Amino acid sequence: MLDRRSPHDDLVDHLTRTTPLDRGEATRVVWDVLAYFDETAADFVRRRHRELQARGLRNEAIFERIAEELPHRAVAPPELSHRQLRRLVYG
C-alpha cells in the first residue's frame, strides 16, 4: 500500500501531540502559516494597504508603516521607497 503522507505531516503530527488541536485543525493551521509565508512582497504591500486604509489611516502613514514592517517579513525583500510602495498598490 502506498504511503499518502504529505510533506508536512510530521509538523501536523507534532501539533496534534503538543496542542489541543485535532488533525484537521492542525492541518489547516499548517496550510494557513505556509500561505502567510508564501505571500510575495507585492501581495503583502497591497494587503496591508487595504487593511490600514480600512482602519482610516491616510497614505502617508500607511506607506511609512509598511516600509517599517517589510524588513521583518520571513524573507525580507529589498528596501522599497514610498513611491515604489505606491506603485505596487496603484500600478
Label the overall shape: elongated
The tally of structural domains comes to: 2
Radius of gyration: 18 Å
Largest sheet: none
Order of helices and strands: HHHHH
Distance between the termini: 51 Å
Q: How many individual β-strands?
A: 0
Oligomer, anyone? single chain
Annotation field: number of helices: 5
Give the low-pLDDT segments: none
Q: Would you tell me the structural class of the helices and strands? A: mainly alpha
Residue-averaged pLDDT, rounded? Answer: 90
What features would you describe in this structure?
It is a single chain. The chain has helices at about 10-20, 25-40, 40-55, 60-70, 80-90. α1 crosses α2 (about 25-40) and α3 (about 40-55) crosses α4. The chain has 2 domains: about 10-40, no CATH class; about 40-90, no CATH class. The protein is built from 5 helices and no strands. With about 90 residues, the protein is mainly α. The chain is elongated, with a radius of gyration of 18 Å.
